[in-house]
Amino acid sequence: MSKLDSKIPEGPLKDKWTKHKNDINVVNPANKRHIDIIVVGTGLAGGSAAASLAEMGYTVKAFAYQDSPRRAHSIAAQGGINAAKNYQNDGDSTYRLFYDTVKGGDYRAREANVYRLAEVSGNIIDQCVAQGVPFARDYGGLLDNRSFGGVLVSRTFYAKGQTGQQLLLGAYSAMNRQIGKGKITMYNRHEMMDLVIVDGKARGIIARNMITGEIEKHSAHAVVIASGGYGNVFYLSTNAMGSNVSAAWKIHKKGAYFANPCYTQIHPTCIPRSGENQSKLTLMSESLRNDGRIWVPKNLEDVKAIREGRKKPTDLSEEERDYYLERRYPAFGNLVPRDVASRAAKERCDAGYGVNATGEAVYLDFKSAINRYGNEKAHVLGIHNPSEAKIIELGEKVVEEKYGNLFQMYEKIVDENPYKTPMMIYPAVHYTMGGVWVDYNLMTTIPGCYAAGEANFSDHGANRLGASALMQGLADGYFVLPYTIGDYLANDIRTGKISTDLPEFNQAANEVKERLEKLINLKGTKSVDYFHKRLGKVMWDKVGMARNAEGLKEAMDEIKQIREEFWKDVRVPGGMNELNPELEKATRVADFLELGELFAKDALERNESCGGHFREESVELDGEQKGEAKRDDKNFAYVAAWEYKGDPRDAVMHKEELTFNDIELKQRSYK
Fold it and tell me: Does pLDDT of 2 surpass 80?
């Protein structure tokens, strides 16, 4: 097992990355073609990494369980991507983006990694523009941007409400260029089943062809895991239903430490669940909080009348509405960070002010924005004393230009016109800040095995600011990994092709077959979804938006019981050697049932509140911050990196102490 060494370079923060690139080893261009790299996952992190590494001359094998890299879940990201280009001339800078990201993560991220992220952010925008990504532009033709939560500047570049899709198409086009040249071999509809380690180094993977069921052995000199996050451990989340933890969990079981699993983001702006039989939730972009105002009725009588259909939200006057974020956080208002906005919505709904039938919804209202934009547009068009109807008509057109596809999606799902009636929203599981532990080079504790994007833990701390996920994924893939992986691969230029006939490959392949056979042969009475839903309910009820010691202990015991029942009574129809979606789900849920217990264990050990991890025992009791999350920097300013020891509750914690030399540790305030 490798020592937990973050490999953060010495020297001033602003010089670390430049100096590091100058100091590390590189691979001669003529030697790169003799080195193979496997990339698992083809979202923004994996797609950009595969394209960049192949462009540099490496031979790349890319694996996706979808039928095309274009189907990766990065496509679902809506609101935008952060970069410190200061186009609005409102005081943005590399340092301010760095500061906002560390503060937004509640001071639980590495300074060096976050500063590097801010430093390369501007390059990402230039790269994507060169690829033809159709970012929104202002009246002068320059790239437009908007604000997101947790910041006081405008730095989020966007393509309407489809930013992830457009950025993914940019990375996909770069991949296709290399596929066409034969530098990337694309394995669609293939799922990684295990990591192969030879002489202590990651040397390949075992994959299952999801069409034929064939178990395949693939070798490489290095393996990159870019398989996204683990939010579907909650069953209901905004993630695609296929999103899973399996690739990351498989390398964890082979020796890669898993860091901060309890850091999970609850997004405040999602369409509320409609019933017990729902299988996923839909995100409404955080960008909507730029122009939407969040409120609930002030009076419980009005709440009751709305729930019973006797009143509509539009019947309530301004005085009858509680714009609670503007009231509680006047400096940031509706643009507080996601964790703050989510807890505030839960608090209002728990107090009885939820506006839908389940009591789990608040309003996101665009009336003020429509009026403001309508008046501005009328002024531009020279329309004096416009009628109210004309103002609304003009204002709705402006809002449609900015958010039209999001409004259309909401109306299709809810069957209400959000231009006329406020949207209903409620928090939902969205993103996971925890993940595989990596050092400054993005290498895990397994030599030669790297993790990029949401699959690693590195840049967001305990809470992710909006529009930072796309930034991190593309930073890792385009501008970090292509440099740092060479430092390791420089020692492999004489290694030559790695044979898949080695005993380590055969052993791993046999273990995969045995595990799949066991699932097929159980012939139990309960479906995979039955166990997944039970796990999700325990996770949401006891490891969700608010956590306490008693509930976390209960969750660990209940998850273990569900896992034991799963391995006795799950029924997986069909066979191994064929297209079998239920078998795919079963392998993923088996991993979730192990991760869920480690997740609860990590949350139990961290007896503080920070970011998306809110312990009911750790809140501010008085002063201006009364009721807010209370961090404990004396005892918990560390990364919890867990080593696999078999049963999740036997996992061993290794601490990476976090040091802050360029930022003062202090209570977060958005008031």
Answer: no
pLDDT digits over 341-393, tens only?
Answer: 999 999 999 999 999 999 999 999 999 999 999 999 999 999 999 999 999 99
CA 52 to chain centre: 22
Residue 169 CB contacts under 8 Å (≥ 6 apart), including other chains: 70, 133
Strands (E), 539-671: 638-643, 652-657
Distance (Å, whole) CA 149 – CA 159: 18
> What digits encode the pLDDT tens for the residues 79-138?
999 999 999 999 999 999 999 999 999 999 999 999 999 999 999 999 999 999 999 999
Nearest to 57 by CA among 489, 491, 500: 489
Query: In sequence order, what are the residues at sequence separation of 6 or more whose Cβ sits closer than 8 angstroms to the Cβ of residue 139?
Result: none
Tokens of 37: 């790299």
CA–CA distance, 339 with 330 (Å, rounded to integer): 17
Secondary element (H or E) of residue 293: strand 293-297
Specify whether the CB–CB gap between 43 and 225 falls below 8 A. Answer: no
Task: Give the three-state DSSP class for 129.
Answer: helix
What does the pLDDT read at residue 671?
87
Q: Has residue 1 got a pLDDT over 50? A: no
CATH of domain 503-638: 1.20.58.100
Asked if 446 and 195 touch (Cβ cutoff 8 Å), the reply is yes
The token duo for 165 is 């899709």
Q: How many CB atoms lie within 10 A of CB 294?
A: 27
**Sequence-distant (≥ 6) Cβ neighbours of residue 53 within 8 angstroms:** 37, 39, 60, 481, 482, 485
The residues assigned a catalytic role are: 338
Task: Quote the DSSP letter at residue 604.
Answer: H
Query: Average pLDDT of the chain?
Result: 96
What DSSP string describes 361-380? -EEEE-HHHHHHHHHHHHHH
Rounded to the nearest 10 degrees, the angle between the axes of helix 111-131 and helix 94-104 is: 120
Structure-token match 């001359």, residue found: 57
Q: Which helix (H) or strand (E) holds 628?
A: none
pLDDT of residue 3: 61
Return the SS3 of 530: helix
Domain boundaries, the chain: 268-428, 503-638
Tokens of 579: 């297209």
Rounded Cα distance, 358 and 336, in Å:
25
> What confidence tens digit (pLDDT) does each residue in 205-215 have?
999 999 999 99
Q: Percent of the chain scored above 70 by pLDDT?
A: 100
* pLDDT above 70: residue 311: yes
CATH number belonging to domain 268-428? 3.90.700.10
Token pair of 36, please?
């193979």
CB 235 within 8 A of CB 536: yes
CA distance linking residue 430 with residue 248, whole number of Å: 18
- The radius of gyration of the chain from alpha carbons, rounded to an integer in Å, stands at 25
pLDDT of residue 274: 84
- Which amino acid, residue 392? I
Are 269 and 288 in contact by the 8 Å Cβ rule? The answer is: yes
Per-residue pLDDT averaged across 420-433, rounded?
Answer: 97
Rounded (5°) CA angle 343-654-198? 120
Per-residue CA distances from 360 to 301, 345, 356, 418, 424 (Å): 17, 9, 6, 18, 9
Q: Strand ranges (DSSP E) for 96-228? A: 145-146, 156-157, 184-187, 190-198, 201-209, 215-219, 222-225
Residue 525 has pLDDT above 90, yes or no: yes
Q: Is the pLDDT of residue 72 over 50?
A: yes
Cross-sheet strand order for the sheet of 201-209: 190-198, 201-209, 215-219
pLDDT of 625 reads 82
Q: In which residue are the tokens 């969700």 written?
A: 544
Residues 6+ apart with CB under 8 A from 642: 252, 257, 258, 259, 261, 598, 602, 651, 652, 653, 654
